[in-house]
Sequence to fold (638 residues):
Amino acid sequence: MTICVVLVASVDSQLEQEILDAGSEYQHLAGLPKALLPVSGGKRVLDYWWTAIESQRQISDVYLVTNAKSFKHFERWATARGLPSQNVVNDGTTTRASSLGAARDLLLALNRCGYNNDRDVVVVAGDSLFHREFDLAALVADQHVRNGSSLAVSYRLAQGELASSRGVVEVDERTRRVTRFVEKPCGDETVSRQACPLFYVLKPAVASLLPEFVDQNEGKPSLGSFMEWAVNDKSSNVSSVRLPGCFRLIGDAGLQDYLDMIEHFERMDSPTYSGALGRGRLTTRAYARVGLFGNPSDGYGGKTIALTIANFWAEATIAPSERLCLVPHPLFDPCDFGGLRDLHFISRREGYQGGMRLLQAACKRFLEYCVERGIALPKRNFTLSYETNVPRQVGLAGSSAIVTAVVRALMRFYALDETHIPVEILPNLVLSVEAELGINAGLQDRVVQAFEGLVYMDFDPTQFEAKGHGVYERLTASQLHAALPLLWLAYSGEPSDSGAIHSDVKQRWRNGDSDAVDGMSSIAAVAAKAREAIRLGDASECRRLMAENFRLRRKLFGDAVLGATNLRLINIAEQNGAVAKFPGSGGAVVGTCDADKLSQVRRAYEREGFVFVELEPHFSDDGDGVLAARMGEVALDV
Fold:
């Protein structure tokens, strides 16, 4: 079981004095401790903590530590809520000058309860404030705590917020272990922006160190200085869990800060408050892609160049709701048919797997990612739906577009940004969703959909071992226009299985088959050459390399695997003076030709029943690679 200690012993705050100076309007607040000030709907600051604490089965005992000046206030508050008066600890201080410090106050509570190093200790500042979505249960039961680690809750310092006023943690991003704790750092003592409010879950191994620390430190040792000593000097096992932004710290706030806080939390606690950054329904978008060079070597540690296109896209729409609800798409997740023949036609044409599995798997993996990386999500439910116009099973990355849009929507809904899921790591998360569903894919599609535009990608395994991702470079719209001013797409109206095209090449490559290994290396080399051709604006070399990409792929996979329809798509281009290759795994070709040949090429494809589309490249407005500017938010109802 777990003990919870709430520290409410601070005295003589700036807020108390300003309330006294403000006159009759705020006279009813005079003399109230900060933690008992009203906030929203008659609830006091401490009531928020009590509501969260009393519902937790893991917490067996709760203790308050207060000063002598406020003792009676907290004793009355406690007994009115069924908390025994002996659980309210008086530290004997009456002024800030005589205060003991948070570390000594915590030790008083542990001594009062007869702590014997046999239980976890949750310690919080009772004058910190959080809204209803704060998930205390998830923190107390965090996997790091279950695995024997103490826990330090952290948040990213806001712009203009000084690190010198907080405890700051440096964290191993892979394990989430706190490697260094710096209490109120000065200057360039640390570059970390991860600050700790006073909220810790202490395992017995750390809590048992408290008497030694207090004995060694005169004055008013803070809990932050204790954690600094425990981590840096005693090498204690402490992990960090990041909050997207649930806390408001009263601390030494003034009256105006307090009034602003009331307004904020009244809005947050309103039944009509959406929870998603204070806003309503939002929609995010991810675009289809065409692989221009090097594919499919992305699944083999190779190199590729791909482009997102504005013609086709997927959207995810998320809105706050009482329960979590995933909405089937009326066309792509059909449950209602005109009859057996209608069911047969749709099943034969569309298959049995729509987008619902993508939504469900994306939500599952999103939560797992956050848990693995110590990101504490607020309690917040939603209704999630999707829309897409990407043609099915023609190799345009329609599935990954849906997943990417969903992950972006979840990030926006839970107020996460690139510090939580870096743009280089987002493709790994998206791919893990599809891998869980058995979708055969490489990273190319997910990378270009995360970065958007024209992207060169190097999937060298040594880079993944060192950094957890490949080397990704954004090429410019002007470079594309010079090298490939006209791109088009032709695809079959009868979709094929986009996973079957890879055949047994993957297994042969894994087995070290020289033809497979050398063939994939040659395909990857095409992308490296194309990168230079694009930089130079060499259109003729780009056309040659597109043709070379297909020739190498055909040699490696064979005509029987590529299929008659796919080969016919290539042949039509060749017969009409154009160049084409597969943009993905099959069912479509991406091509280029001179502008005066475009109508001829279009007619040739349309005569044989293929769909022909002139492509519109999609480039993000952000050229600097900042995820926040490429989140793909396209609609917002407020």
